[in-house]
């Protein structure tokens, strides 16, 4: 994921939820899934999707569209 984002020159913030239960809980709340595991993709507080959704967008050559939803 980082390679794709870096290659497209997309600025992003990586948050390590293993060091903060507060960040983990927020991620799960924003996903709407109390058992969600990383990686999850957000734009601000807007949930864009999980790794599979990201991978599908890359494969379909629709990553810009995915990131701008």
UniProtKB/TrEMBL annotation:
A Gene Ontology term for the protein's cellular component: cytoplasm
From the record, give the transmembrane residue ranges. Answer: none
Q: Which domain of life is it from?
A: Eukaryota
InterPro entries given in the database record: Glut_rich_SH3-bd, SH3BGR, Thioredoxin-like_sf
* Family of the protein in this entry: Belongs to the SH3BGR family.
- What is the protein name stated in its UniProt record? Uncharacterized protein
Q: Which organism is it from?
A: Pomacea canaliculata (Golden apple snail)
Task: Print the organism lineage.
Answer: Eukaryota, Metazoa, Spiralia, Lophotrochozoa, Mollusca
């Amino acid at each position: 994921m980082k390679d794709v984002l870096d290659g497209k020159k997309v600025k992003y913030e990586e948050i390590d939820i293993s060091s903060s239960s507060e960040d983990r809980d927020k991620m799960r709340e924003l996903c709407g899934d109390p058992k969600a595991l990383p990686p999850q993709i957000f734009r601000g507080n807007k949930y864009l999707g999980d790794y599979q959704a990201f991978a599908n967008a890359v494969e379909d050559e629709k990553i810009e569209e995915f990131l701008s939803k």
